[in-house]
Amino acid sequence: MSTVPVCPVCDAEVHLQGTTIVSELVVCDSCSCMLEVRSLDPLQLAEAPQEQEDWGE
Amino acid sequence: MSTVPVCPVCDAEVHLQGTTIVSELVVCDSCSCMLEVRSLDPLQLAEAPQEQEDWGE
Amino acid sequence: MLILKIGGGAGINIEGIADDLAGAPEPAVIVHGANAWRDDLADRLGVAREVVTSVRGYDSVLATEATMDVMLMAYAGLRNKRIVETLQRRNVAAIGLTGLDGRLIRGKRNPGIQVRQGEKILLRRDLSGKPQGINVPLLKLLMENGYTPVLTVPICDEQGFAISADNDDITAALHRELRASMVVSLLEAPGFLSDPADPGSVIASMSRADVKQWEERSTGRIKRKLHAINGIMEEHPTRVILADGRTAHPLADARAGRGTVIA
Amino acid sequence: MLILKIGGGAGINIEGIADDLAGAPEPAVIVHGANAWRDDLADRLGVAREVVTSVRGYDSVLATEATMDVMLMAYAGLRNKRIVETLQRRNVAAIGLTGLDGRLIRGKRNPGIQVRQGEKILLRRDLSGKPQGINVPLLKLLMENGYTPVLTVPICDEQGFAISADNDDITAALHRELRASMVVSLLEAPGFLSDPADPGSVIASMSRADVKQWEERSTGRIKRKLHAINGIMEEHPTRVILADGRTAHPLADARAGRGTVIA
Fold first, then answer.
1. Are chains D and C touching, using the cut-off of 8 Å on CB pairs and a minimum of 3 such pairs?
2. Chain C residues with beta carbon closer than 8 angstroms to that of D96
3. How many CA atoms lie within 13 A of A23 on its CB side?
4. What superfamily does domain D2-43+63-105+131-262 belong to in CATH?
5. Distance of CA B47 to the CA centre of its chain
6. CB distance D62 to D51 below 8 Å
7. B-chain residues within 8 Å CB-CB of D112?
């Protein structure tokens, strides 16, 4: 990963392990927002949606 | 077959062979109408619908 | 106006329901399920159901493209049109529609389920959502012209995609905007059972407070059903009847209060 | 007003057609087939097709309860709703309906096919018929309120039963009562081919007399299609275009006269 990924919420650098996969949820160390790995190539991070009451289906 | 079947069009007696089956088309000997064997027990005869142009499907 | 929810089990007596509607016609919107037909079709086609367990321990069947195709065939195709046929055979002017048609039922896509995989947590998105709004003008247009809408999933998400939704949530969303004088839900049970294993444990009537208590004590599907009923009762209280959809005259029985009456 | 018939082959470019409709909206009624989806589903479910040969030598696939269920799932469920979804994704207010819904397309049950069995002749009845009338008020109600009806089989027989019918006959019946300014039929071919085996043999334009001659010279499905077009041209002449449904912009091409123009 050439460029260092930044948090879409607070712009701080986000340190991802080499084993990161798409759909993975990671926490931004600086603002502790939950981030979703939308794609790896190109690397795209997005704030994870707020979880709502989860009923199971 | 206890009662002798009659033609629904001209009321003449209709002579069916023992091998008659449901859906079979038979011709009334007296009025030569095409009759459909709707059921065997009870025996029901009906005038067969007029065939319309037949396209195959 | 009546909202009639018909369960998706194979034991439901649709002919009896149609006889009752034809016998005592009233403006009505029908919502129906088809889970029995879906499961049979998925088995016959070999379409696997992927169940995921959320980090909070709830199991969900993921709505994928493949399961959506099965849903379209079983709900919108087979069951919807056979119900319309059964009604048309009795001269009830039924018109079968999904929530996608004319954006009748607009919904919001679920945000995804957080699932543990090894020490990672993944967000599993799928094609399911919650109903948010009803195209009331279209429903009224049809009903004012004598038609009985027969509705089923899928519903329509913000971008016009077909998504699945829960029929109890759909029923509540319909009531919220149509303000039905009565909501009847026909099940494969004699009504609400205090002990789900004992068909004799039907609760004949429940107040709004009772429903709240039962929701807290229940789990899974029943909890969800009671949650939707609570939503109905909180916003626009009406007469809600849970009755047996397998009897000779399910709707007549429900109209006569045989089952669980919530008012 | 446009009547747009979309063929049931898998090669049809439904996204391109939807782009064209969204790009240049006009009041339209869509009729679509789904034979490719039906055949695939019948194979996967192991539903056999019973072909009978009439005493006059024509082959027909019998429409049985089992094949009707497959038709409901493939046409009214899967294909109809995926076409509605594709249109809704482009903000075309599509509403998917069969001829059964609201008795949109009323038909008469075929009298049955006379079939030789040994030295007997049997009358084989099935669930097929000919369209006889359209519920024009319902179609107009929807179109005047901005909706685009997306229609498919089954149609509705005299007693309210679901029966199958030929889409070319349905298109002709729709035109008879709606008097479309243009009828476009999108096929898996560049237009009408003088030699079915040669895609280069597209006839660019045909007069009404040409169509009659070609009907007499053709056999099977093509003869049937031309027979329906002749019916259209005899009763309410209009502009009929047979065009390729597989190109990038099938409807735009047809509107521009690329294909076979019959006028």
1. yes
2. 97-98, 100-101
3. 13
4. Acetylglutamate kinase-like (3.40.1160.10)
5. 6
6. yes
7. 49
CATH fold of A1-49, please? Answer: Rubrerythrin, domain 2 (2.20.28)
Specify the pTM: 0.92
Cβ separation of D73 and C75 shorter than 8 Å? no
The CA distance from C103 to C158, in Å, is 10
C12, C191 contact by CB (below 8 A): no
Helix (H) or strand (E) holding C144: helix C136-144
User: Does the beta-carbon distance from D122 to B54 stay under 8 Å?
Assistant: no
Distance in Å, alpha carbon of C38 to nearest chain D alpha carbon? 11
The ipTM, to two decimals, is 0.88
* Distance of residue D89 Cα from the nearest chain B Cα, in angstroms: 35
Strands D182-187 and D2-6: parallel
Which residue bears the tokens 């895609």?
A: D199
Rounded CA-CA distance C168/D17 in Å is 36
Fold observed for domain C2-262: Carbamate kinase (3.40.1160)
What is the distance between the alpha carbons of residues D256 and D241, in angstroms, rounded to a whole number?
10
In one-letter notation, the amino acid at residue B16 is L
Cα C63 to Cα C164, C222, D210: the distances in Å are 7, 21, 52
Q: Among partner residues C91, C147, C159, which is closest to D102 by beta-carbon distance? A: C147
**Chains with at least 3 CB pairs less than 8 angstroms from chain D:** B, C
pLDDT by position in tens, chain C (length 263):
999 999 999 999 999 999 999 999 999 999 999 999 999 999 999 999 899 998 888 888 899 999 999 999 999 999 999 999 999 999 999 999 999 999 999 999 998 999 999 989 999 989 999 999 999 999 999 999 999 999 999 999 999 999 999 999 999 999 999 999 999 999 999 999 999 899 899 999 999 999 999 999 988 788 888 999 999 998 899 999 999 999 999 999 999 999 999 98
Helices (H), D145-237: 167-178, 208-217, 220-235
Q: C-alpha angle C215/C218/C220, rounded to 5°? A: 110
Q: What tokens were used for A13? A: 């650098």
> Are the C-beta atoms of residues B56 and B43 closer than 8 Å to each other?
no
Q: Cβ of C56 under 8 Å from any chain A Cβ?
A: yes
- Strand locations in A1-57 (E): 25-27, 34-40, 43-47
Contact B47/B33 with Cβ under 8 angstroms? yes
In this complex, do C95 and D102 lie within 8 Å of one another by their Cβ atoms?
yes
Q: Where are the domains of chain A?
A: 1-49
Strands, E assignment, chain D: 2-6, 28-32, 51-53, 59-61, 94-98, 105-109, 113-117, 120-124, 129-134, 148-152, 155-156, 162-163, 182-187, 205-206, 239-244, 260-262
- C220 to chain A: which residues are within 8 Å by CB? 56
Instruction: Inform me whether the C-beta atom of residue D69 falls under 8 Å from chain C C-beta atoms.
Output: yes
Cα D8 from Cα D256, distance rounded (Å): 23
Chain C residues touching residue A27 (CB < 8 angstroms) = none
Q: Is D30 exposed, middle or buried (0-12, 13-18, 19+ CB in 10 A)?
A: buried
A18 touches chain C (CB under 8 A): no
Which of the 8 DSSP states describes residue A11?
Answer: -
Q: What is the crossing angle of helices C35-45 and D35-45, to 10°? A: 80
| Domain-wise residue ranges, chain D | 2-43+63-105+131-262
